[in-house]
Write a structure and sequence with these properties.
Layout: H1 4-27, E1 36-42, H2 53-71, E2 75-76, E3 79-80, E4 82-87, H3 92-105, E5 107-112, H4 117-130, E6 134-135
Parallel strand pairs: 1-4, 1-5, 5-6
Antiparallel strand pairs: 2-3
Helix pairs in contact: 3-4
């Protein structure tokens, strides 16, 4: 038989759990309701079972930053900022191809990523050429600091 204190603890845990689920569900933004987007380039997007902790955390922080911008009504041309992410697979040409595809079909106003310095050199040159900002969250090559 369950003691009174155990049942109180169980009830409190249940109530707090319901509060957390309700809060998360009510604050998640709708996707693609704006045509202003940030592009996230990540090494592994679709296969999270093989993703590194850095890759998983980077995607989470990217999405969290967009959510915060929406909660504070940060807009560009009167529209909230949305996001899309693509998988590079650690391949430089794949990163460039995916970025160009996204840029050709969406209104991308900035690029976040890629994770690897070898990809970041090419993506940084692309951003400079088409005049959109590129920021990488983990590259270590000092030549990319400009």
């Amino acid at each position: 038989m369950m003691s009174w204190s155990s049942s109180q603890w169980l009830f409190l845990s249940f109530i707090l759990g319901q509060f957390n689920v309700h809060y998360v569900a009510s604050s998640w933004p709708s996707t693609n309701s704006s045509n202003i987007q940030l592009l996230g380039l990540f090494e592994n997007v679709s296969n999270t079972s093989e993703s590194s902790k850095v890759s998983v955390h980077s995607r989470a922080m990217f999405k969290a930053a967009v959510m915060v911008s929406q909660q504070y009504n940060i807009t560009i041309e009167g529209q909230l900022i949305e996001w899309q992410s693509v998988e590079t697979g650690g391949n430089t040409i794949n990163a460039l191809t995916k970025a160009c595809q996204a840029l050709s079909i969406s209104n991308i106003v900035g690029i976040v990523g890629p994770q690897l310095s070898r990809e970041a050199h090419l993506i940084a040159d692309l951003g400079k050429t088409i005049d959109i900002p590129v920021i990488s969250y983990i590259v270590t090559d000092p030549d990319l600091s400009d």
